[in-house]
Amino acid sequence: MTEFQCSRFSGAGVDCARGGRLVFAALDFAVEPGCALVLVGPNGSGKSSLLRLMAGLIRPTAGALAWGDEEILKDRESHAGRTHYVGHQEAAKPAMTARETLGFWAAMRGAPGTGVERALEVIGLGHRMDYPGRYLSSGQKRRLALARLLAAPAPLWLLDEPSVGLDRDGVAMLERELAAHCERGGVVVLATHTEIALGSNAVELELGDFTPSREAVLARMAGEVV
Amino acid sequence: MSAFWALVGRDLRLALRQGADAVMVLMFFVIVVTLFPLGVGPEPGVLERISSGIVWVAALLAAMLSLDRLFQADYDDGSLDLIVMTPAPLELVVLAKCLAHWLTTGLPILIVSPLLGVLMNMRPDAFWVLLAGMALGTPVLSLVGAVGAALVLGSRRAGVLVALLVLPLTIPILIFGVGAVEAAVGGYGARPHLLLLGAVLLFALPLCPWATAAALRQSTT
């Protein structure tokens, strides 16, 4: 059953600079609907930066990312509407309960509140719905962040090391939900250092291969066009 | 629109549960005003003469105290990334932040200001004009303050920096707000001053959310 009207998510010739330093250069990628892209590479190779580029939170210094034929920065709101981004930070307020936090993020995406409790049950926080954020453990906060994926459906999931802090059951639950999302025709891009089983639809992208050469960096510093 | 009210509701809820921020602003406002009778002496004539200026200046300074928290907490815990990625227009989302900020700081300042007017021996017939001026002026503080708060995100000493950025921009509000009260006390009409304050508000209402949204997009890089 295909739930999402998904398009091919791709990027061509993407350069990314952070703080004036080129992180990766001339990066190409493409993910078909129902598939997953796994970003691997050493620390500092730009996995998080690429995910933020994909989310539209930062701009590439060269190249473009596209959903189907549509460049993502052309219409930020529709790209935001189709994208779930789970970063390193959990975005959970100490003074708000799990139910309130998730209800808020679902409402921000215009989703009805009915999915919230179900999402918390599935994610394994059913017994902690009314706990304030300050009493949730780091693993539980991570689950709460992942619950956003289920509370408001969106075809594109961008996950930055989603398994950090999760116990073994948590990782199994994550794998289950990722597989279900791909089966619905959704697109997953995730960065990870640990093993997350994703089945045969997953393609790996080694970011270490796109580290700019010494010459490219020097040329950039000299102000030349690389 | 659901995103707008969801954000207003969340910020109000957080402000109620972490009441210290809002109470601190109000206490600062009250204490600054009460320092003046102690500093310049208790002659009623002198206090009456300077009352509107003192109340307005204290209100501006108090509002500055709350501005650095406007986006900083969301920036620190990653919420701002998700707020910027809301499918609703970011300008509307910023407007919701400003409304919540006004309800938790501007509105309490507005309600307390006539009481401080009494303390400063302000003429009772000027209270309504003071209230009207505050009602038009304090939302502008939230709107202009949001631009400053978004620009200083991530910098050290953001609280001081935002005051340095925003206070000069509040001079028109101070001039017309005080002018309205003075006019009412002096027997002239306060209407032109209030109309000018209203004009400033109408000017800030579309312009500030637009500038704030641009600054927030910049801050996520």
What does this structure look like?
The complex is a heterodimer of chains A (226) and B (221). Helix content of chain A is 33%, strand content 23%. Chain A has 226 residues and is of the alpha/beta class. In chain A, a hairpin with a 2-residue loop joins strand 4 (62-67) and strand 5 (70-71). In chain A, helix 3 (98-108) packs across helix 4 (114-123) and helix 3 (98-108) runs parallel beside helix 5 (138-151). The relative contact order of chain A is 0.21. Chain B has one domain. Helix content of chain B is 83%, strand content 0%. The longest helix of chain B is centred in the middle third of the chain and has 30 residues, at 90-119. Chain B is elongated, with a radius of gyration of 18 Å. The two termini of chain B are 27 Å apart. The model of chain B has no long low-confidence stretch (mean pLDDT 92).
Provide the descriptors you would attach to this structure in a database record.
heterodimer, A: 226 residues, Rossmann fold, five-stranded parallel beta sheet, four-stranded antiparallel beta sheet, globular, B: 221 residues, mainly alpha, elongated
The string of secondary-structure elements of chain A, in order, is EEEHEEHEHHHEHEEH
Extended strand count of chain B? 0
- Helix proportion of chain A: 25-40%
Give the end-to-end Cα distance of chain A, rounded to a whole number of Å. Answer: 46 Å
The overall pLDDT of chain B, averaged over residues, is: 92
**Major beta sheet of chain B, specifics?**
none
Our estimate of the beta-strand percent of chain A is 15-25%
Largest sheet of chain A: 5 strands, parallel
The quaternary structure here is heterodimer
Topology:
The complex is a heterodimer of chains A (about 230) and B (about 220).
Chain A (H helix, E strand, L loop, with lengths): L8 E10 L2 E11 L4 E5 L6 H9 L6 E6 L2 E2 L4 H7 E4 L11 H11 L5 H10 L14 H14 L4 E5 L7 H16 L3 E5 L10 E5 L7 H8 L5
Parallel strand pairs in A: 3-8, 3-9, 6-7, 7-8
Antiparallel strand pairs in A: 1-2, 1-4, 4-5
Chain B lengths: L1 H16 L2 H21 L3 H24 L1 H8 L2 H6 L5 H30 L7 H25 L6 H9 L4 H16 L4 H29 L2
